[in-house]
Design a protein that fits this description.
The chain has a single domain, classed as Sortase (Sortase, Chain: A), CATH 2.40.260. It is built from 2 helices and 9 strands; from the N terminus they run H-E-E-E-E-E-E-E-H-E-E. Strands 2-3-4-5-8-9-7-6 form an 8-stranded mixed β-barrel. It is globular, with a radius of gyration of 16 Å.
């Protein structure tokens, strides 16, 4: 990651993510206090064997078989207020990769965001994100034709006011993935919580 990208990455880490998150229809996860499944640390491995890093290549698709996600991926930057952009509210909802984060398979945390609801259009692409469990598979299709496959290590629901920036954006010594959406109690202007999925690159079979 370049020094400029690193600064933008750190800047975004101080901001609340997915402040609006679409509103509208749909159900979400429970809990206003943190709810967590899986490993006690986001760096706990998905298997004893370490995964090799992949060459930098922008993600273009995302598949999560356990919750029926199969979506194109768009690029996201920073909004004018310094927060991470979110995908547009649209009928054909897509996930978005934060382009100041590593690409999936590079060392460090690659960040992909999506809506839980998209206003009058109904459910968002990440509507069932909180249903993921440790061991579930996530596949990021890359622009170079390869696929980065990750294994879920942890799922958390946290209040937006307590967003764990260090755990989401902090340096890690292996390729990891973060999927983020809204959750918890829905209010007139959005949702009170964020759902965060932590995943690690799956080691290749011998």
């Amino acid at each position: 990651m370049t020094s400029l990208s690193r600064r933008a990455f750190v800047t975004a880490a101080t901001a609340t993510l997915l402040a609006g998150c679409g509103g509208g229809h749909g159900t979400t996860t429970t809990a206003n206090s943190p709810v967590e499944q899986g490993s006690s640390t986001p760096s706990t491995g998905a298997g004893a064997k370490a995964a090799h890093t992949l060459a930098r290549s922008v993600p273009v698709t995302l598949r999560i078989p356990a919750i029926g996600v199969d979506t194109p991926v768009m690029g996201l930057g920073l909004a004018s207020d310094g927060t991470v952009q979110v995908p547009p509210i649209a009928a054909h909802d897509r996930a978005g990769w934060y382009r100041n984060s590593p690409t999936p398979g590079q060392r460090g945390p690659s960040v992909i965001l999506g809506h839980v609801t998209v206003g009058a259009y109904g459910d968002g692409v990440f509507r069932h994100l909180a249903r993921l469990r440790t061991g579930d598979r996530i596949e990021a299709g890359l622009e170079n034709g390869t696929t980065a496959t990750f294994t879920v290590t942890r799922v958390r629901t946290v209040a937006k006011a307590d967003f764990p920036s260090d755990q989401v954006y902090g340096d890690v010594n292996r390729p990891e993935l973060r999927l983020i959406t809204c959750g918890g109690t829905r209010t007139g202007t959005g949702y009170l919580d964020n759902v965060i999925v932590f995943a690690a690159l799956t080691p290749a079979s011998p």
